[in-house]
Specification:
two-stranded antiparallel sheet, 25% strand, 183 residues, 5 helices, globular, alpha/beta, Aminopeptidase
């Protein structure tokens, strides 16, 4: 049985010990909450499909420093890790993108980006290497088989509404599960 690691981005002690990191916040909605909702939904779907699932954090009080999340995946024997996030820019940018590290991870990143953007009804911004992100490196991608999904832009009203819709969240998580299940 394979082990899937789900990483709901941000949360307690993400960057500083004892401090809660909500991630991007827009219109009173925190990225960490959206990420946790998607991780919990995806976890339930994968478990129903007989997958072993580990989350890097289970709630907003569970400390999970970003620099340790790849270690968590390794310690639980993870075969694949999906890190869930929301983007933010200027309120005008929108869409879904998936970041990956190694060239051999690109194909799955392309599939994930297409599946998530279709299910969410967002623009497909595509698969991108971590060097194409706003950061020089993405700590979770230290885990060999990790993909970071930027579901949508939290500061874009339509993206945010779609990410918050329970039916769309369910459909999106089903789409993610369909892509990663054969992996």
């Amino acid at each position: 049985m394979s082990t899937t690691i789900l990483d709901p981005g941000h949360g307690m002690s993400n960057r500083r010990r004892g401090q809660y990191d909500p991630g991007a916040v827009s219109n009173g909605v925190a990225e960490a909450d959206i990420a946790m909702g998607y991780a919990n939904e995806l976890r339930a779907i994968l478990i129903k499909r007989k997958h072993k699932v580990i989350r890097t954090r289970v709630d907003n009080k569970d400390p999970a420093p970003v620099w340790r999340r790849d270690d968590i995946a390794v310690s639980y024997g993870g075969d694949i890790m999906i890190s869930l996030h929301c983007n933010a820019a200027n309120g005008k940018a929108s869409g879904t993108e998936v970041f990956y590290r190694g060239a051999d991870d690109k194909a799955l990143a392309v599939k994930l980006s297409a599946a998530v953007s279709t299910a969410l009804g967002t623009k497909n911004r595509g698969a991108k290497t971590e060097s194409q992100s706003q950061h020089s490196s993405l700590a979770v991608l230290e885990f060999d088989k990790c993909w970071l999904i930027e579901l949508g832009f939290i500061d874009h009203a339509r993206d945010r509404a779609k990410m918050l819709d329970p039916a769309i969240r369910r459909k999106t998580c089903e789409a993610i599960a369909d892509v990663i299940a054969p992996y």
